[in-house]
Amino acid sequence: MPHDLLNSGSFLLKTTPQTKHPSKEELDELLLASKAVLSMTDFQSCARKIFDSCCRVTGATSGYVALLDDAGEENEVLFLESGGRSCTVDPELPMVIRGLRALAYSSGASVYDNNFNNSEWMQHMPQGHVQLDNVLFAPLNIDQQTVGIIGIANKDGNFSERDAKLSTTFGEFAAIALKNSQYLEGMKQSFEKQLSLEKQLQHATKMQAMGVLSASIAHEFNNPLAGITNIIHGIKNRAVYDEEDAELIDMAIRECARLKDLIGSLHDFNRPSSGTFAQMDVHSTIRGLLVLCNHLFNTKKLSVTTHFQPGLPHVHAVADQIKQVLLNLLNNAVDACSFYGTIIIKTGTTDGHVFIDITDDGKGMDAETVQRIFDPFFTTRAEVKGIGLGLSVSYGIIRRHQGKIVVESEPQKGSTFRILLPRRRTNETQKEDTGGR
Ligand SMILES: Nc1ncnc2c1ncn2[C@@H]1O[C@H](COP(=O)(O)OP(=O)(O)O)[C@@H](O)[C@H]1O
Ligand SMILES: [Mg+2]
C-alpha cells in the first residue's frame, strides 16, 4: 500500500479470509443482486438494483455507478444517488479518474476512507459536490481490467473490511451484468447486420427480376407503339375531322409520346451500363444540369443553393447516367416543394466516397413510404405526373457505379437524398462495365 494512503486514513481491501458467516440480510441482498443479473433486460436498471442492494447491506446512503469512458480517462456516470443531501455539481462535468477512485481503478480492489472530509482527496472535489463523510469504491473488473466502479458513501458510522468485501462481490455482480449486456449488444448488432444484408439481397434480386421483366415488356411494346403513332399521325394529316376530334387526336399523340418515354425508362431500368466510365468532374456536371433545370425551379419560384466542397476529387463514372440520377432527384425535390421552397445541393467526401446531397424542405415522407420508394412503379404522385420509375432507375444506375443512395426524410420537414460514389471502383467491375457495351 502506498505510504501516503496509510497517512490519509484510506484502506485498500485486505485479502484476509472472512471469518464471520454472512447474515440472513446479507444473503438476501446477494440473492437479489444475482436475480437482477439473471433477469437483466438492460445494464443500467440492473446496475441500479445491485447498487441499491450494496447500499442496504453496507448502510451507505449515497453513491453512483459509473463506467470508464473509451479513452480510459473519465467516469461516465450511469446514475447518482445523493441520499437526500444537496448536490449542485453539473452532471455534465467530466469526472476525471483521480483521487481515491484512481486507486480502485489501478488496484482493481475495493478502497475506502472513513475520514474523507479531512483526506487529501478532498482537493479533487468540485464545488457543490454532495458532502462525503466516508466513501467506498468497489471496482467492476472484466478480464482483469477495471472498467467501471460502484461508489458508495455516507454510511452512518465507519465502513469496515466486511463492507469492502461485500461491495467487491456486488462489483463482481455488476461486472458480470456488464459483460452479459456487451455480449447481448454484440449479438443484436450482428443479427441486425445480417437482417439488413438479407434485405439488401432481396431488394437486389427483386430489382434484377424487374429489370429482366421490364426489358421484355419494353421490347414487346416498342414496335406496336411505333405503329400506332404512325397511324394516328397519318389520320391527323389525311382525314377530315372537326375541332373536337382534332383535340382528341392530339391527345392520343401526346399519350403515345408518354408511353414512348415510359418504355424508354423501362429500358434504362435494365441497361447494365450503356455509357463509358470516365473521370467525371462532379461540380461541372451539377452546374450544367442546374442550367437545364432553371425553368423547372422557376415554375415554383424555388431557391436553389449549392455548397460545393473545394477541391472535390473526380469520380470514375458515366456522366450521362449520373446526370439522369441527379435530374430524377431534382425533379422529385421540385415536386415535393411548395412555392418558394428551398433546395440545397451539397458535395463532400466521406470514407473513400464522394457524396452529393440533394435536400429539399418539401413535404417529406413517413417511414412506410421511404421503405417503398425504390420499388419500381411506386409513386404517390398524381397518375399523369408520376410513373414511379425515377428512383428505381436511379438505384440501378448508382448500384452499377458501386455506389449507394441513402435517404433521410421527415414528414412536413423535407428530405435529403445522398448519392455516394466510390472514388475508386474495383478493377473487376471496371472491366465488366467497359467491356464494349
Ligand atoms: N424529395 C422527395 N420528397 C418527398 N417524396 C419523395 C421525394 N422523392 C421521392 N419521393 C417519393 O418517392 C416516390 C417515387 O419517386 P420516383 O421513383 O421518382 O417516382 P415518381 O416521381 O414518378 O413518383 C414519389 O412518388 C414520392 O412519393
Ligand atoms: Mg420521380
What does this structure look like?
There is one protein chain. The chain has 11 helices and 14 strands. The protein has helices spanning 3-8, 24-38, 43-58, 99-107, 161-238, 243-270, 282-299, 319-336, 367-372, 390-400, 427-433; strands at 10-12, 62-68, 74-81, 95-96, 111-113, 135-142, 145-153, 278-280, 303-307, 315-317, 342-350, 353-360, 404-410, 414-422. Strands 1-5-6-7-2-3-4 form a 7-stranded antiparallel sheet, sandwiched between helices. Strand 13 (404-410) and strand 14 (414-422) form a beta hairpin. The longest helix has 78 residues, at 161-238. It starts with a helix and ends with a helix. The protein has 437 residues and is an alpha+beta fold. The radius of gyration is 34 Å and the shape is elongated. Mean pLDDT is 86; it is low at 1-8 and 428-437. It folds into 2 domains: 3-186, Beta-Lactamase (2-Layer Sandwich); 275-437, Histidine kinase-like ATPase, C-terminal domain (Heat Shock Protein 90, 2-Layer Sandwich), CATH 3.30.565.10. Bound molecules: adenosine-5'-diphosphate and magnesium ion. Adenosine-5'-diphosphate binds next to helix 8 and helix 10.
